[in-house]
Amino acid sequence: MDENLILEAKNISKGFPGVQALDNVDFSLRRGEVHALIGENGAGKSTLIKILTGAHQPDSGEILLESKILTHLNPHTAMEAGISAIYQEFNLIPYLTVAENIYFGREFTKSAFVDMDKMNDSTSEIFSAIDVDINPRLQVSELSVAYKQLVEIGKAVSQNSRILIFDEPTAALTNKETENLFKLIKKLQSENVSIIYISHRLEELQEIADRITVYRDGKYIDTVNIEDTNRADLISLMVGRELGVDFPKPKPALDEVVLEVSGLKSGLLKDINFKLRKGEILGFGGLVGAGRTEVARALFGLDDVESSEIKIHGKRVDNKSPKAAIANGIGLIPEDRKDQGVLLNLSIRENISYTFINRISDWIFVNRRREKNLVDEFQSKLSIRCSSVEQRVSNLSGGNQQKVVLAKWLAGDCDVLIFDEPTRGIDVGAKQEIYQLIKELAEEGKGIIFISSEMPELIGMSERIIVMHEGSIEGELNAAEVNQEKILDLASGND
Amino acid sequence: MPKGFSLKKSIRKHGIFYVCIVVFIFFAVASDAFLTRNNLMNVMRQVSMLGITAVGMTCVILTSGIDLTVGSVLGLTGTVAAKLMVEAGFHPVAAVIFALLAACLFGALSAFLITSVRIPPLITTLGLMGTIRGIIYILCGGLPVYGFTKAFKVIGQGYVGIIPVPVIIMVLIFIIGHLFLNRSKYGRYIYGLGGNEEAARLSGVNIRGMKYLTYMFSSLCAGIAGIVMLSRLFSAQPTTGAGFEMNVITAVVLGGISIAGGEGKLSGVVAGVLIIGVLTNGMILLNIDSYWQMVVQGIVLLIAVGVDQLGKTLHSKSKNEA
User: Looking at the domain assignment, is residue A385 inside a domain?
Assistant: First the structure.
């Protein structure tokens, strides 16, 4: 047996009604390593994490921490054993300060009162030990995503966690922030903290991971050393077949301009001007916070703008609300699927018909037959995998949920579709299907605005890329001349 | 039995109907007077005002709102209609229409305060609940109003065949509510925005408009119940409908409508209303002390919702995403 193992999960099985989430899987973690766990959605990664952190009990199998069997693991005992997880959705209380969050439930007290000074001081100590600069007195709601994540890490460190689990930590970070996070992870690693790292971004594993374990459909597939593998191998392990991510290039755009934006100004945006042609995929690159989402929101009538002139097919329109924008032929697939895109309490059918329900209604009543036709058409067109369209969307995987959101928008026929990070947090297979779909939409003659922080897909998909920096358009690149360096250059403001 | 029928599943899905049946059987066995035609019609007539108001309340709660004004609006509608008939000499039909318009106006005011001033629904309707009750007292000077034409009795005391008119009105309102919530696009919008208001807005739903619609509908329902009540009592009392909002919310929640919005079916609310009606009637027949009646009603609510919640938690625990 490997002497250096800190954590070992053996023969873990866990079933839920209708699905065997984990089927006799193993996982082992060495002291001080970064061990990536990858797999498509539904592979069983989240279930394993929930078992390791005590949120779920396995049906069978055992978990050994330093060769001792852990029984009756629950969230509290997991924390005491030094296992912490940092999820994509943070467990922070927005209206408390950084220090209050870090010591939440374990406050220092002086007689009957909370000792704020001591909490602030020791929070500062924790942060300086990991080279992070955050004022412990700040309210968490004022922090950016990257800083919130650092607070979560600080919290784990303050609990003397020896095993840290990161679930898609870079999904919402800029490149710079990702770099900092990696530095921090390496520092923790050097202090003998062991790390389980879950990510859909295979590129970054080369940089951060020591070993990689692949799961597929609830089964253990393989564990490999990072030196002995490459991206293509990993993908084929994950999907069980060779699948090169290739970007389907659509036919070149037509000359006809479908959308023209001039003089768009708002709190963040400084004079945005651009044109979108029929059948064109126009990429928007830039760092998080550069204003790409704000452009989308302004076009869609979500935010107040100081001034703007928006023309669709040469006709001036006033998108003062999403309803007006939709009526004018603009659709927005928002970046935050759960909070803005999908209606989790409704069925697939109700989601798909939601936006364009007028088209299948007689007066105010929904025509069930027309609804069924519409829903069936898009369910099969997007190959949404489900037992029935009456299934609740909350029970679908991320990739399938995103397809439902897309179907919701395709059910109408918008002239302009804005995709804001359409593939965030979804698996390789579903990504590929979404790329193909966007391409088909462009070929049907729609104008596509494609906002993405993932360079390969931004470059692969777009015919033209507009790069934004701090609220302005910093430059425009054609498909022929574009590469990652050029985009990064513009995105960071160096012309 | 139909293919694939599972009692366990059915109980989980339609639990409240089973509770309703159990309560019904209990009183049928415990009291000889319960299972007579007259008494059953009586139960239905007693719950009619509760049922009518519950339809509107269901819509509001589905949007993740709440409407505490219904009791006061019920009282106000009665008082306004009574005043118009007795003092202004209005024809009953005209008086009823004006009174219902007044009710809708307060629904619109709730919606305005919630959407434009952004006061949370609980606070908005709490404030208006007191305000409207005060207006009732001012209008009638704290005294009952009476002396209507005989014909006005029809709404609250009349029969069509053997069926009391209020019951017919209640059934009609439930049918309208059903069509509205389950068949119309507005029903979809309501469920969507109750579950995720931001996603509904991004799907082009006019959120403000929908809230005006639901709060005005809720007030309208309460107003109709107020007219039925006025006709039954044949006098407008300033205290009419005080505390009624709590009974309505109880019936709706008992019916499985999630107070967080976006979940639950109007059919469940039918059961919720019936349970309250049967319980009240049955306990009176059994001569149970009225103080104890309150205790029992409270406990029934807690048990019904508690069992439902436990069922859901166990269900979702065993079904968490893989």
Answer: yes
